[in-house]
Amino acid sequence: QVHLLESGGGLVPPGGSLRLSCIASGVITPIAVMGWYRQVPGKQREMVATKANGGSPHYADSVKGRFTISRDNPKNAVFLQMDSLKPEDTGVYFCWAATLSGSWGQGTQVTVSS
Predict the structure, then answer these.
(1) 35 closest CA partner among 17, 15, 61, 56
(2) What is the pLDDT of residues 55-67, one digit of tens each?
(3) Across-strand partners of 44?
(4) Phi, psi of 61 (to 5 degrees)
(5) Rg of the chain's alpha carbons, rounded to an integer?
(6) Which one of 26, 40, 66, 110 is most buried, by most CB atoms within 10 A?
(7) DSSP string of 9-62, one letter each residue
(8) Three-state DSSP state, 88
(9) Residues 6+ apart with CB under 8 A from 102
């Protein structure tokens, strides 16, 4: 069973930066696509960024130019560098991996507030 372990959330003022990390365990083959989603209370989970092995990243329009997704393919890890954070970026961020049934991390809270 694939397990995704996230880290890096926290409280940051507007304009600040955070870096999220996620590493997969329980899998020995490269995961084709990994990414990040976020959810706020009362709303559906939304895609923030995804990246395929050797492919170009995809970003939600709301984070383009501010967030950068990167992969460490041999380790099946994915990272999200978040800069110029805004209050509307607040939410629970979930790591996702394109395994057979789709795998999700437990989520990490990101709060952007002064």
Answers:
(1) 56
(2) 999 999 999 999 9
(3) none
(4) -55, -35
(5) 13
(6) 110
(7) -EEE-TT--EEEEEEEES--S--SEEEEEEE-TTS--EEEEEEETTS-EEE-GG
(8) helix
(9) 96
